[in-house]
Amino acid sequence: MAGDNRKEFIFVGLGNPGKQYEMTRHNIGNLVVQSLAKSQGLAFKDESRFQAQVTKGVVDNVKVHLVLPTTYMNESGVAVRRYIDFFKLDPQAVVVVSDDIDLPFGHMRLRESGSAGTHNGLKSVEKHIGTQKYPRLRMGIGAGHQSQELASHVLSRFDSDEAATLDSFVDKGVNVLLRIVREEMTSIMNDVNRKVNKKQKTDLLQVEGQEKNNDSR
Questions:
Q1: What residues contact 168, with CB distance under 8 A and at least 6 apart?
Q2: Element (H, E) at 53
Q3: Are 125 and 148 in contact (CB under 8 A)?
């Protein structure tokens, strides 16, 4: 039975438009939804009326809509609102995939609702659909080096070690979205939301910082 007995889902991949942003950390949500489309043999089409690239199909008898806003990140909600209004869809059918600086690279968090925190894309979605009650899959991109500005970090490209496992990480995100179609959300969250203890997180960030220092020498 489809997750939560829903008849359809709108998977939204957050990111910035343009070739220069394609492989940046901030666009990992976009990469996951693109990869989901590819796995299902779906092709995106530019739709100016939605300010998004869109496609739709059926997974296990459940209709899925895939939306990639072509606004910049902080206006992502405009595309989502236009899309759900046009097709008269329930805002709670929206599932957003975004980056998360509070998670080490390779880790994910799945929540059914909650605050947008500092993420401008999630803030925009919340503002335009008028609720915090929509699932979101957060893909860890790490916090970067302490001396690095947030904007610089999220708009940077993955380092060589991360790039080597990026496809695998994106595939994990795709698998979560497919499970959302097929399974109950609580069961998926129990599997996905593994604790990252403070020491593990600190050690990972220290390693990342050391690698960046070495690369800059």
A1: none
A2: strand 52-59
A3: no
Given pLDDT bands bounded at 50, 70 and 90, which one contains residue 6?
low
Interval 95-128: pLDDT, tens: 999 999 999 999 999 999 999 988 999 999 999 9
Which of 26, 119, 128, 153 does the annotation list as catalytic?
Answer: 26
Q: Which two tokens stand for residue 172?
A: 């994990």
8 Å CB contact between 9 and 62: yes
Do strands 136-140 and 108-111 pair parallel, antiparallel, or not at all (unpaired)?
antiparallel
In terms of Cα–Cα distance, which of 86, 48, 39, 91 is closest to 69?
Answer: 48
pTM: 0.85
Rounded to a whole number of angstroms, the CA Rg of the chain reads 17
Q: Please say if 119 is a catalytic residue.
A: no
Least Cα distance to 95 among 6, 24, 162, 161 occurs for 6
